Write the structure tokens for this entry.
Amino acid sequence: MDIRFLITGDDSAGTTILLAHGAGAPMDSKSMNAVSAALADAGFRVARFEFGYMSARRTSGQRRPPPKAETLQSEYRDAVEALNCQGRLIIGGKSMGGRVASMVADDLFAAGQIAGLLCLGYPFHPPEKPAQLRTAHLEGLRTPTLIVQGTRDEFGTRPEVEGYRLSAAIRILWLEDGDHDLVPRKKISGFAASDHLKTTGTEVAAWAATLT
């Protein structure tokens, strides 16, 4: 598969974060652009890529349902290989992209290919289907992980997630009133989207500094 990367940030940065997109939006969506810029401002080199089904949309114009996340694991591994990162690498993604990354993280971590996992708006369950959990593999995850989650994310709110059994390797950064794109309602929360983006960049940098 021919993989095209969208790079944000300084190529001389010591740490690269590889991000995959969510199920329904491409790597250059508004939310992906915003969070990539915030991470670049925090000192990271950010590399984004698209799974084959999303890349095909650009040429065909046809919007087909995404495949099951489990079937995309090999594509994520291919992206890691194609990127051929020379510095420290953290993998992750937005929503489904982060979920796929979490499925391949332990093998890559054990092989010394990555230092950590960053999930932005993890889809703990489908909206309005809280019983359909996607957390089984997270219970035994060994890779150091940071999940950035809005407290009102319909894929997993704070009260829901705090009741799950998750690995001790997982840390969760809660963004007050953030939705699935981490965006808050300023009139209700007092926070603007820019506030949460800055916090994300600062906290990811602090977390990354603890990784070996």
